[in-house]
Amino acid sequence: MQFGIFSVGDVTPDPHTGRTPDDTERVRSMLTIARHADETGLDVFATGEHHNPPFVPSSPTTMLGYLAGVTKQITLSTATTLITTNDPVRLAEEYAMLQVISDGRMDLMLGRGNTGPVYPWFGKDIRQGIPLAVENYALLRRLWREDIVDWTGTFRTPLQGFTSTPRPLDGVPPYVWHASIRSPEIAEQAAYYGDGFLHNAIFWPMEHTAQMVNYYRQRFEHYGHGRADQAFVGLGGQVFMRPRSQDAVNEFRPYFDVAPVYGHGPTLEEFAHETPLTVGSPQQVIDRYGAFWEQVGHYQRQMFLMDHAGLPLKTVLEQIDLLAEQVVPVLRAEAEARRPADAPSNPPSHADLVAAARAAGTAGATQVSAEADHWTGRTAEDDEAAALAVEPRTH
Protein backbone atom coordinates (compact mmCIF):
# COMPACT_ATOMS: atom_id res chain seq x y z
CA MET A 1 0.00 0.00 0.00
CA GLN A 2 1.21 3.50 -0.82
CA PHE A 3 1.20 6.45 1.55
CA GLY A 4 1.79 10.03 0.54
CA ILE A 5 1.28 13.74 0.96
CA PHE A 6 -0.89 16.03 -1.10
CA SER A 7 -0.91 19.80 -1.02
CA VAL A 8 -3.59 22.23 -2.12
CA GLY A 9 -1.06 25.05 -1.89
CA ASP A 10 -3.18 27.46 0.15
CA VAL A 11 -1.66 30.75 1.27
CA THR A 12 -3.10 31.24 4.75
CA PRO A 13 -2.07 33.54 7.63
CA ASP A 14 -0.54 31.97 10.71
CA PRO A 15 -3.13 32.69 13.44
CA HIS A 16 -0.38 33.05 16.08
CA THR A 17 1.72 35.63 14.25
CA GLY A 18 -0.74 37.04 11.72
CA ARG A 19 1.97 36.66 9.08
CA THR A 20 1.00 35.51 5.59
CA PRO A 21 3.70 34.00 3.35
CA ASP A 22 3.95 35.43 -0.13
CA ASP A 23 3.41 33.23 -3.17
CA THR A 24 7.13 32.62 -3.73
CA GLU A 25 7.66 31.44 -0.17
CA ARG A 26 4.63 29.15 -0.37
CA VAL A 27 5.75 27.54 -3.63
CA ARG A 28 9.23 26.95 -2.24
CA SER A 29 7.80 25.46 0.94
CA MET A 30 5.86 22.96 -1.19
CA LEU A 31 9.10 21.96 -2.90
CA THR A 32 10.78 21.47 0.50
CA ILE A 33 7.85 19.36 1.69
CA ALA A 34 8.03 17.13 -1.38
CA ARG A 35 11.78 16.62 -1.01
CA HIS A 36 11.37 15.82 2.68
CA ALA A 37 8.62 13.31 1.92
CA ASP A 38 11.00 11.62 -0.51
CA GLU A 39 13.82 11.57 2.06
CA THR A 40 11.59 9.98 4.71
CA GLY A 41 10.52 7.17 2.39
CA LEU A 42 6.94 8.17 1.69
CA ASP A 43 5.59 6.88 -1.60
CA VAL A 44 3.77 9.80 -3.23
CA PHE A 45 3.76 13.58 -3.40
CA ALA A 46 0.84 15.24 -5.19
CA THR A 47 0.10 18.88 -5.91
CA GLY A 48 -3.29 20.37 -6.58
CA GLU A 49 -4.12 22.65 -9.50
CA HIS A 50 -5.71 26.00 -8.72
CA HIS A 51 -5.95 29.22 -10.68
CA ASN A 52 -7.19 31.58 -7.99
CA PRO A 53 -5.97 33.09 -4.72
CA PRO A 54 -5.40 32.03 -2.01
CA PHE A 55 -3.82 29.06 -3.83
CA VAL A 56 -0.53 29.00 -5.74
CA PRO A 57 -0.09 25.70 -7.66
CA SER A 58 -1.33 26.85 -11.06
CA SER A 59 1.24 24.83 -13.03
CA PRO A 60 1.57 21.28 -11.67
CA THR A 61 3.86 19.95 -14.38
CA THR A 62 6.37 22.77 -13.81
CA MET A 63 6.57 21.91 -10.13
CA LEU A 64 6.65 18.16 -10.67
CA GLY A 65 9.21 18.44 -13.47
CA TYR A 66 11.56 20.24 -11.09
CA LEU A 67 10.91 17.69 -8.37
CA ALA A 68 11.68 14.85 -10.77
CA GLY A 69 15.23 16.17 -10.92
CA VAL A 70 15.77 16.63 -7.18
CA THR A 71 14.01 13.58 -5.71
CA LYS A 72 15.07 9.96 -5.90
CA GLN A 73 12.19 7.56 -5.46
CA ILE A 74 8.91 9.23 -4.65
CA THR A 75 6.04 9.02 -7.17
CA LEU A 76 5.01 12.47 -8.40
CA SER A 77 1.32 13.01 -8.94
CA THR A 78 -1.48 15.57 -8.97
CA ALA A 79 -4.45 16.31 -6.78
CA THR A 80 -6.03 17.16 -9.18
CA THR A 81 -5.39 17.86 -12.85
CA LEU A 82 -8.43 19.71 -14.22
CA ILE A 83 -9.75 17.53 -17.03
CA THR A 84 -12.64 19.92 -17.70
CA THR A 85 -10.90 23.27 -18.22
CA ASN A 86 -7.54 22.11 -19.58
CA ASP A 87 -7.16 21.32 -23.27
CA PRO A 88 -6.62 17.55 -23.57
CA VAL A 89 -4.00 18.20 -26.23
CA ARG A 90 -1.91 20.18 -23.75
CA LEU A 91 -2.49 17.57 -21.05
CA ALA A 92 -1.27 14.84 -23.38
CA GLU A 93 1.89 16.77 -24.17
CA GLU A 94 2.66 18.07 -20.69
CA TYR A 95 2.20 14.82 -18.82
CA ALA A 96 4.00 12.74 -21.44
CA MET A 97 6.89 15.20 -21.07
CA LEU A 98 6.75 14.78 -17.28
CA GLN A 99 6.67 11.02 -17.73
CA VAL A 100 9.82 11.15 -19.86
CA ILE A 101 11.64 13.56 -17.54
CA SER A 102 10.80 11.53 -14.43
CA ASP A 103 11.59 8.22 -16.14
CA GLY A 104 8.06 7.05 -15.44
CA ARG A 105 8.06 8.05 -11.77
CA MET A 106 4.68 9.77 -12.01
CA ASP A 107 0.97 9.40 -12.48
CA LEU A 108 -1.88 11.88 -12.48
CA MET A 109 -5.28 12.30 -10.92
CA LEU A 110 -8.00 13.86 -13.03
CA GLY A 111 -10.88 15.83 -11.58
CA ARG A 112 -13.29 18.69 -12.18
CA GLY A 113 -12.01 20.84 -9.31
CA ASN A 114 -14.02 22.62 -6.64
CA THR A 115 -13.82 26.21 -7.87
CA GLY A 116 -16.83 27.11 -10.01
CA PRO A 117 -15.44 30.37 -11.53
CA VAL A 118 -12.54 28.50 -13.13
CA TYR A 119 -14.86 27.34 -15.92
CA PRO A 120 -15.55 30.75 -17.51
CA TRP A 121 -11.95 31.81 -16.91
CA PHE A 122 -10.97 29.11 -19.40
CA GLY A 123 -13.96 29.51 -21.68
CA LYS A 124 -15.99 26.57 -20.39
CA ASP A 125 -19.50 26.13 -18.99
CA ILE A 126 -19.72 24.56 -15.53
CA ARG A 127 -23.08 23.06 -16.50
CA GLN A 128 -21.17 20.86 -18.94
CA GLY A 129 -18.75 19.56 -16.30
CA ILE A 130 -19.56 15.87 -16.65
CA PRO A 131 -19.72 15.81 -20.49
CA LEU A 132 -16.44 17.75 -20.59
CA ALA A 133 -14.80 15.18 -18.32
CA VAL A 134 -16.05 12.32 -20.50
CA GLU A 135 -15.10 13.78 -23.87
CA ASN A 136 -11.77 15.30 -22.83
CA TYR A 137 -10.55 12.10 -21.26
CA ALA A 138 -11.61 10.02 -24.24
CA LEU A 139 -9.51 12.30 -26.44
CA LEU A 140 -6.58 12.30 -24.00
CA ARG A 141 -6.46 8.51 -24.10
CA ARG A 142 -6.42 8.50 -27.89
CA LEU A 143 -3.64 11.10 -28.05
CA TRP A 144 -1.45 8.89 -25.87
CA ARG A 145 -2.30 5.66 -27.67
CA GLU A 146 -2.48 6.66 -31.33
CA ASP A 147 0.41 8.14 -33.26
CA ILE A 148 -1.91 10.01 -35.63
CA VAL A 149 -5.30 11.24 -34.45
CA ASP A 150 -8.29 12.43 -36.46
CA TRP A 151 -10.98 13.58 -34.08
CA THR A 152 -14.16 15.63 -33.92
CA GLY A 153 -15.99 16.41 -30.71
CA THR A 154 -18.23 18.93 -29.01
CA PHE A 155 -15.97 21.08 -26.88
CA ARG A 156 -12.86 21.86 -28.94
CA THR A 157 -11.84 22.30 -32.55
CA PRO A 158 -11.34 19.12 -34.63
CA LEU A 159 -7.96 17.46 -35.03
CA GLN A 160 -6.70 16.23 -38.39
CA GLY A 161 -3.56 14.12 -38.64
CA PHE A 162 -2.38 15.32 -35.23
CA THR A 163 0.52 13.71 -33.34
CA SER A 164 1.06 14.58 -29.70
CA THR A 165 4.72 14.89 -28.70
CA PRO A 166 6.66 13.59 -26.97
CA ARG A 167 5.24 10.12 -27.27
CA PRO A 168 4.65 8.32 -23.95
CA LEU A 169 7.68 6.70 -22.37
CA ASP A 170 8.21 3.16 -23.70
CA GLY A 171 4.98 3.54 -25.66
CA VAL A 172 2.93 3.24 -22.47
CA PRO A 173 0.75 6.15 -21.21
CA PRO A 174 0.89 7.35 -17.59
CA TYR A 175 -1.37 5.71 -15.05
CA VAL A 176 -4.53 7.72 -14.39
CA TRP A 177 -6.72 8.16 -11.33
CA HIS A 178 -10.17 9.75 -11.52
CA ALA A 179 -11.17 11.77 -8.48
CA SER A 180 -14.61 12.75 -7.32
CA ILE A 181 -16.19 13.51 -3.99
CA ARG A 182 -19.86 13.26 -4.95
CA SER A 183 -20.32 12.36 -8.64
CA PRO A 184 -20.98 8.68 -9.39
CA GLU A 185 -20.56 9.50 -13.09
CA ILE A 186 -16.83 9.92 -12.48
CA ALA A 187 -16.64 6.64 -10.56
CA GLU A 188 -18.37 5.08 -13.56
CA GLN A 189 -15.82 6.62 -15.91
CA ALA A 190 -12.92 5.24 -13.89
CA ALA A 191 -14.50 1.80 -13.82
CA TYR A 192 -15.27 1.86 -17.54
CA TYR A 193 -11.60 2.23 -18.42
CA GLY A 194 -10.24 0.14 -15.56
CA ASP A 195 -8.45 3.18 -14.13
CA GLY A 196 -8.00 4.08 -10.48
CA PHE A 197 -10.63 5.93 -8.43
CA LEU A 198 -9.66 8.28 -5.60
CA HIS A 199 -12.17 9.67 -3.14
CA ASN A 200 -10.80 12.66 -1.26
CA ALA A 201 -12.96 12.33 1.81
CA ILE A 202 -11.61 15.29 3.77
CA PHE A 203 -15.04 16.94 4.01
CA TRP A 204 -17.28 13.86 4.00
CA PRO A 205 -18.23 11.06 6.39
CA MET A 206 -16.79 7.63 5.66
CA GLU A 207 -20.28 6.27 5.00
CA HIS A 208 -20.46 8.45 1.89
CA THR A 209 -16.92 7.50 0.87
CA ALA A 210 -17.76 3.81 1.21
CA GLN A 211 -20.84 4.26 -0.99
CA MET A 212 -18.81 5.90 -3.77
CA VAL A 213 -15.93 3.40 -3.55
CA ASN A 214 -18.20 0.36 -3.49
CA TYR A 215 -20.12 1.65 -6.50
CA TYR A 216 -16.84 2.03 -8.40
CA ARG A 217 -15.79 -1.48 -7.38
CA GLN A 218 -19.05 -2.99 -8.64
CA ARG A 219 -18.73 -1.21 -11.98
CA PHE A 220 -15.05 -2.13 -12.30
CA GLU A 221 -16.04 -5.78 -12.06
CA HIS A 222 -19.02 -5.23 -14.37
CA TYR A 223 -16.70 -4.01 -17.15
CA GLY A 224 -14.54 -7.10 -16.80
CA HIS A 225 -11.37 -5.60 -15.38
CA GLY A 226 -11.21 -8.01 -12.45
CA ARG A 227 -12.95 -8.71 -9.18
CA ALA A 228 -14.40 -5.81 -7.24
CA ASP A 229 -11.76 -6.24 -4.54
CA GLN A 230 -9.03 -5.98 -7.20
CA ALA A 231 -10.02 -2.45 -8.22
CA PHE A 232 -7.57 0.40 -7.61
CA VAL A 233 -8.80 2.71 -4.86
CA GLY A 234 -7.25 5.74 -3.19
CA LEU A 235 -8.44 7.89 -0.28
CA GLY A 236 -7.59 11.36 0.95
CA GLY A 237 -7.36 12.31 4.61
CA GLN A 238 -6.07 14.82 7.15
CA VAL A 239 -4.10 14.33 10.34
CA PHE A 240 -2.24 16.37 12.93
CA MET A 241 -0.16 14.52 15.50
CA ARG A 242 1.86 14.98 18.64
CA PRO A 243 3.06 12.26 21.03
CA ARG A 244 0.37 13.40 23.48
CA SER A 245 -3.08 13.70 21.96
CA GLN A 246 -4.14 16.74 23.97
CA ASP A 247 -1.02 18.59 22.86
CA ALA A 248 -2.03 17.92 19.25
CA VAL A 249 -5.54 19.26 19.86
CA ASN A 250 -4.31 22.38 21.65
CA GLU A 251 -1.73 23.14 18.96
CA PHE A 252 -3.95 22.53 15.94
CA ARG A 253 -7.17 24.17 17.16
CA PRO A 254 -6.16 27.80 16.36
CA TYR A 255 -5.27 26.79 12.80
CA PHE A 256 -8.51 24.87 12.35
CA ASP A 257 -10.65 27.69 13.71
CA VAL A 258 -9.47 30.26 11.15
CA ALA A 259 -8.72 28.04 8.15
CA PRO A 260 -10.51 29.35 5.04
CA VAL A 261 -11.74 25.88 4.08
CA TYR A 262 -13.54 25.05 7.31
CA GLY A 263 -12.90 27.76 9.87
CA HIS A 264 -15.79 29.59 11.55
CA GLY A 265 -17.98 26.53 11.03
CA PRO A 266 -18.14 23.22 12.93
CA THR A 267 -15.94 22.81 15.96
CA LEU A 268 -12.74 20.79 15.67
CA GLU A 269 -14.37 17.96 17.59
CA GLU A 270 -17.48 17.96 15.38
CA PHE A 271 -15.45 18.00 12.20
CA ALA A 272 -13.14 15.23 13.40
CA HIS A 273 -16.13 13.10 14.32
CA GLU A 274 -17.82 13.47 10.93
CA THR A 275 -14.78 13.29 8.62
CA PRO A 276 -11.40 11.48 8.51
CA LEU A 277 -9.65 14.47 10.14
CA THR A 278 -7.74 12.94 13.05
CA VAL A 279 -6.01 15.16 15.60
CA GLY A 280 -4.19 13.26 18.30
CA SER A 281 -1.39 10.77 18.85
CA PRO A 282 0.18 8.59 16.15
CA GLN A 283 -1.61 5.59 17.65
CA GLN A 284 -4.95 7.33 17.27
CA VAL A 285 -4.18 7.91 13.60
CA ILE A 286 -3.26 4.24 13.21
CA ASP A 287 -6.49 3.15 14.88
CA ARG A 288 -8.67 5.54 12.86
CA TYR A 289 -7.21 4.91 9.43
CA GLY A 290 -6.75 1.20 10.02
CA ALA A 291 -10.50 0.95 10.56
CA PHE A 292 -11.27 2.34 7.09
CA TRP A 293 -10.54 -1.07 5.56
CA GLU A 294 -13.70 -2.32 7.23
CA GLN A 295 -15.75 0.19 5.22
CA VAL A 296 -14.02 0.39 1.84
CA GLY A 297 -12.02 -2.84 1.68
CA HIS A 298 -8.36 -3.11 0.74
CA TYR A 299 -7.14 -0.02 -1.07
CA GLN A 300 -3.83 0.94 -2.62
CA ARG A 301 -3.16 4.61 -1.87
CA GLN A 302 -3.73 6.79 1.19
CA MET A 303 -2.94 10.48 0.81
CA PHE A 304 -2.70 12.97 3.68
CA LEU A 305 -3.17 16.74 3.69
CA MET A 306 -0.68 18.24 6.17
CA ASP A 307 0.57 21.62 4.95
CA HIS A 308 -2.58 23.69 5.13
CA ALA A 309 -4.32 26.28 7.31
CA GLY A 310 -1.19 28.38 7.85
CA LEU A 311 0.85 25.71 9.62
CA PRO A 312 4.56 26.69 9.73
CA LEU A 313 6.90 24.75 7.46
CA LYS A 314 8.85 23.45 10.45
CA THR A 315 5.67 21.99 11.91
CA VAL A 316 4.71 20.36 8.62
CA LEU A 317 8.11 18.69 8.34
CA GLU A 318 7.72 17.38 11.90
CA GLN A 319 4.32 15.97 10.94
CA ILE A 320 5.84 14.17 7.95
CA ASP A 321 8.47 12.63 10.22
CA LEU A 322 5.81 11.34 12.61
CA LEU A 323 3.80 9.95 9.74
CA ALA A 324 6.74 8.23 8.06
CA GLU A 325 8.35 6.87 11.21
CA GLN A 326 5.46 5.92 13.48
CA VAL A 327 2.30 5.57 11.41
CA VAL A 328 3.09 4.34 7.92
CA PRO A 329 5.11 1.24 8.87
CA VAL A 330 2.26 -0.03 11.06
CA LEU A 331 -0.50 0.74 8.54
CA ARG A 332 1.52 -0.74 5.69
CA ALA A 333 2.01 -4.01 7.56
CA GLU A 334 -1.66 -4.15 8.55
CA ALA A 335 -2.75 -3.47 4.97
CA GLU A 336 -0.61 -6.29 3.64
CA ALA A 337 -1.93 -8.69 6.27
CA ARG A 338 -5.54 -7.87 5.32
CA ARG A 339 -5.05 -7.81 1.55
CA PRO A 340 -7.29 -10.30 -0.28
CA ALA A 341 -5.56 -12.96 -2.33
CA ASP A 342 -4.62 -11.68 -5.79
CA ALA A 343 -5.61 -8.11 -4.94
CA PRO A 344 -2.84 -5.66 -5.92
CA SER A 345 -0.78 -4.21 -3.11
CA ASN A 346 -0.03 -0.98 -4.95
CA PRO A 347 -1.23 0.93 -8.00
CA PRO A 348 0.56 -0.01 -11.22
CA SER A 349 4.03 1.47 -11.61
CA HIS A 350 5.42 2.39 -14.99
CA ALA A 351 7.40 -0.85 -14.98
CA ASP A 352 4.19 -2.78 -14.27
CA LEU A 353 2.41 -1.09 -17.16
CA VAL A 354 5.28 -1.73 -19.54
CA ALA A 355 5.42 -5.39 -18.56
CA ALA A 356 1.66 -5.78 -19.06
CA ALA A 357 1.80 -4.04 -22.44
CA ARG A 358 4.66 -6.21 -23.62
CA ALA A 359 2.85 -9.33 -22.49
CA ALA A 360 -0.17 -8.18 -24.50
CA GLY A 361 2.01 -7.17 -27.44
CA THR A 362 0.87 -3.54 -27.31
CA ALA A 363 3.91 -1.68 -25.95
CA GLY A 364 4.76 1.05 -28.43
CA ALA A 365 2.14 -0.19 -30.88
CA THR A 366 0.53 2.33 -33.18
CA GLN A 367 -3.25 2.44 -33.14
CA VAL A 368 -5.18 4.05 -35.94
CA SER A 369 -8.76 4.01 -34.74
CA ALA A 370 -10.66 5.18 -31.69
CA GLU A 371 -9.80 2.87 -28.84
CA ALA A 372 -12.62 0.55 -27.90
CA ASP A 373 -12.99 -0.97 -24.48
CA HIS A 374 -11.38 -4.41 -24.65
CA TRP A 375 -14.30 -6.09 -22.89
CA THR A 376 -17.33 -4.23 -24.24
CA GLY A 377 -16.10 -3.16 -27.68
CA ARG A 378 -17.43 0.37 -27.10
CA THR A 379 -15.76 3.75 -26.80
CA ALA A 380 -16.76 6.43 -24.36
CA GLU A 381 -17.14 8.89 -27.22
CA ASP A 382 -19.64 6.64 -28.97
CA ASP A 383 -21.46 5.60 -25.84
CA GLU A 384 -21.43 8.37 -23.27
CA ALA A 385 -24.49 6.77 -21.74
CA ALA A 386 -22.20 4.08 -20.36
CA ALA A 387 -20.46 6.73 -18.31
CA LEU A 388 -23.54 8.76 -17.42
CA ALA A 389 -26.32 6.22 -16.81
CA VAL A 390 -25.70 5.62 -13.15
CA GLU A 391 -27.72 4.96 -10.04
CA PRO A 392 -29.37 8.01 -8.45
CA ARG A 393 -27.39 9.85 -5.81
CA THR A 394 -28.42 9.18 -2.24
CA HIS A 395 -26.06 11.72 -0.69
Write a structural description.
This protein has a single domain, classed as Luciferase-like domain (TIM Barrel, Alpha-Beta Barrel). Helix 2 (60-70) links the parallel strand 2 (44-47) and strand 3. It has 14 helices and twelve strands. The chain is an alpha/beta fold. The chain has helices spanning 23-39, 60-70, 88-101, 118-121, 129-145, 184-193, 206-222, 245-258, 268-274, 282-290, 293-296, 313-338, 350-360, 385-388; strands at 2-7, 44-47, 75-78, 81-82, 107-111, 149-151, 159-162, 175-179, 196-200, 233-241, 278-280, 301-305. Strands 1, 2, 3, 4, 5, 8, 9, 10, 11 and 12 form a ten-stranded parallel beta sheet that branches. It has a two-stranded antiparallel sheet with strand order 6-7. Mean pLDDT is 91; it is low at 366-378 and 384-395.
Summarize this structure as a short list of keywords or feature phrases.
single chain; 395 residues; alpha/beta; TIM Barrel; ten-stranded parallel β-sheet; two-stranded antiparallel sheet; 14 helices; disordered C terminus
Reported for the largest beta sheet, the result is: 10 strands, parallel
- Indicate the CATH architecture: Alpha-Beta Barrel
Mean pLDDT, rounded to whole units?
91
CATH superfamily: Luciferase-like domain
Annotation, overall tally of beta strands: 12
Domains counted in the coordinates: how many?
1
Listing every helix as H and every strand as E from the N terminus to the C terminus, the arrangement reads EHEHEEHEHHEEEHEHEHHEHHEHHH
**Fraction of residues in helix:** 40-55%
Number of helices: 14
Write down the CATH class. Alpha Beta
Overall 3D form: globular
CATH topology type: TIM Barrel
How far the N terminus sits from the C terminus, by CA atoms, comes to 29 Å
How much is the radius of gyration in Å? 20 Å
Structural class: alpha/beta
Strand fraction band? 5-15%
Poorly predicted segments = 366-378, 384-395
